[in-house]
Design brief:
Length: 390
């Protein structure tokens, strides 16, 4: 079998790229290791930059997002027992973010792909990438006990941090950068109205907490927890108590508690692999980089990678030039590193680190105080939060 672009992975990166390519008549096949339900069962962040919303629109997958997404023109930082609002719109010339879950983004993209009759092979096991250093790459995979071969022009490695694509590149051709953080985020979803109209990022002596949401009746909350903590140790009651202790009194009083229907612990990590292109293989999204969730950049970075790669493919397939593909890695990485820096910085100012010491603690307090009282510092936060230009 043959297609133009094999896309490995049906997360947001792979699906978005597939939809955009379909829009210009380029044929794709998506190979996904898991089942559709498993992909849709993963709960991830839910804050979209305008560039991401625009790209989903271009892919024809933004109708529900426009109808149901919540437009937020500010966020609050909580410390010293009170809320400090950062007016994103006022500081960035009217820009805002849209709160809409990544699960819903994935759902909408899958629906569009199905409606267009495009091929996704779910539960494709043992995906293997061949000859991407030359002119005729191909991919093999097993489905229902039969091995298949798919020849193609290009391979898009959209298979996340644990995928096969990055691992297929010879180790000496890759440079990786990594930072682990000595704590995790315990996240809870509950069918209760959010504590605040906007997101609240709280720095408290007991640790970080975040009040987020999926809609006006569904809340997403997180608390920083020690490395190695197990989710079984966290009953709903313990979670709600801990969350409220870390919030200013008035916000804590507005938390509506209820049974959680999802509860999980995620580690925090920064990771970048360079470059993002090896001959006819391109790495996209989490396959090339991971950011800690503070600042909600993961999905937005996946979208900007897709923007650059799609522009390169469009020029290539419309016979204009290969220049866009040639600059993909450098362009994507320039934006990736700015988001890596921003999410590392947000993580540093908002969490309690086990080895900070008294000096480090005072520095953190000074930074937060400066941040909310200096227009220049607030603007730097705001313009990164709403998304740097492509
Ligand atoms: N073969 C086929 N598919 C694979 C393989 C493999 N060997 N390994 C992983 N996959 C699939 C996964 O099952 C998953 O569905 O690739 C997909 C990768 O999706 P994501 O991890 O969601 O990565 P991406 O599409 O780049 O999305 C980035 O998702 O992880 C968040 O924070 C991240 O929000 C960001 C966004
Ligand atoms: C979320 O809603 O899951 C969320 C929001 C903002 C973040 C991280 C996660 O910074």
């Amino acid at each position: 079998m043959r297609t133009q672009v094999v896309i490995v992975g049906s997360g947001p990166s792979g699906l978005l790229l597939g939809q955009l390519l379909a829009g210009i008549g380029v044929e794709t096949v998506i190979l996904e290791r898991s089942s559709r339900d498993h992909v849709l069962g993963r709960v991830r962040a839910g804050v979209l930059e305008q560039g991401t919303v625009d790209l989903l629109g271009e892919a024809g997958a933004a109708a529900r997002l426009h109808a149901e997404g919540l437009s937020h023109s500010g966020i609050s930082l909580a410390f010293d027992g009170r809320l400090h609002r950062i007016d994103l719109a006022e500081l960035t010339g009217g820009r805002h973010v849209t709160v809409y879950g990544q699960t819903e983004v994935t759902h909408d993209l899958m629906d569009r792909r199905d409606a267009a009759g495009l091929v996704t092979v779910y539960e494709a096991s043992d995906v293997a990438l061949y000859d991407f250093g030359g002119a005729a790459p191909f991919v093999t995979y097993d489905k229902d006990g039969i091995t298949h071969r798919m020849d193609c022009d290009f391979i898009a490695g959209c298979d996340g941090y644990h995928g096969v694509s990055r691992g297929s590149v010879p180790e000496r051709a890759l440079k990786t950068f990594e930072r682990q953080y000595p704590f995790g985020w315990l996240g809870v979803l509950a069918e209760v109205p959010p504590a605040d109209r906007e997101l609240v990022y709280a720095n408290h002596e007991r640790g970080f907490a975040l009040c987020s949401m999926r809609s006006t009746h569904r809340s997403r909350y997180y608390v920083q927890c020690p490395e190695g903590d197990r989710v079984e140790a966290w009953s709903d009651d313990r979670f709600w108590d801990e969350l409220r202790r870390r919030l200013p009194e008035q916000t804590a009083a507005s938390v509506t508690t209820g049974p959680s229907f999802e509860k999980s612990i995620a580690p925090l990590r920064s990771f970048v692999a360079e470059p993002m292109r090896f001959g006819r293989l391109f790495l996209v999204g989490d396959a090339a980089h991971i950011v800690p969730p503070t600042g909600a950049k993961g999905l937005n970075l996946a979208a900007s990678d897709v923007r650059y790669l799609f522009d390169g493919f469009r020029d290539f397939y419309q016979g204009k030039s290969e220049a866009g593909l040639d600059v993909y890695s450098a362009k994507a990485l320039a934006r990736v590193w700015k988001a890596v820096r921003f999410s590392w910085w947000m993580t540093n100012i908002l969490h309690r680190f086990p080895d900070t010491g008294d000096f480090g603690q005072r520095i953190q307090e000074a930074e937060l105080d400066y941040l909310v009282h200096s227009r220049a510092a607030s603007t730097a936060l705001a313009e990164n939060y709403v998304g740097l230009p492509y």
